[in-house]
Amino acid sequence: MARRIVLTSGKGGVGKTTVCAALGLALARKRKRTLLVDADFGLNNLDVALGMETRVVYDIHDVAEGRCGLSDALIEDSSYRELKLLPSVRCDCARLSKNALASVLARLDDDFDFVLIDCPAGIDEGFHRAVCVADEALVVTTPHPGAIRDADRALTLLGTYPLHAVGVVVNRVRGDLVMDGRSLSAAEIAEALGHPAMAYVPEDDAVAVCGQTGAEMPYAPSTRAIAMLADNLTDGGRKLYDCTYNYRGVLGRLKMYLRRQI
Ligand SMILES: Nc1ncnc2c1ncn2[C@@H]1O[C@H](COP(=O)(O)OP(=O)(O)OP(=O)(O)O)[C@@H](O)[C@H]1O
Ligand SMILES: [Mg+2]
Q: Which atom of ligand 1 is nearest to the CA of 203?
């Protein structure tokens, strides 16, 4: 029986899809059979984040409406056979009901260890549809005050669902600003949100480079932070990436100084 985890945020553009794709890859590297479901039916782009957009033939709507079988719609990652995507490519938010989504996922539960559900931004119909088919949730936020406030609202709503676990992912943390005292630290943000921190992910140029070239960067800071998240999910630990690590000591201070000049 798969663990179904929804990635949600409240605020848009904080990195749900990016974290979902990277976490899928990290779990697949650990040989966990992982399905990524694009439940952002309006502005779907999980296929793009995974570099699979040219391979989409059928999507979740086709499966739900019986135009194809499940295996016709699933796309396997070219490097990791454990990782599959159930894409959504139509821009038709309203058509697929909660029940239809639930019945598609029920047919997949036995074939996967993890099902990661990429939720749309906001807290309206798409949020509820994605959350009601999940057992666990990860709320993604950035250090931006607006993102933190929306994450708090999402967490309040998640409290009305019978979820087994709800954790926080603080994304796009600028270690240099934290060291300077100009940004809240990831730990302060997680503490303010009152839920266990599952990952601290640094701001990382590798995210954009990987997104454009499709190259894997196993030693990039964000990749390492997400690998820790995969470990935390599989072994119940609480390893968290230290986003300020690169800005410590003499060299770190020099890096901070140079960043300030740009
Ligand atoms: N850790 C990071 N470092 C640098 N850039 C990042 C990081 N995480 C995400 N981004 C960038 O932030 C942008 C938004 O990311 P993404 O599309 O994953 O957000 P989202 O929450 O899914 O957005 P939406 O609410 O529209 O679905 C993308 O350009 C992505 O490359
Ligand atoms: Mg998204």
A: 3
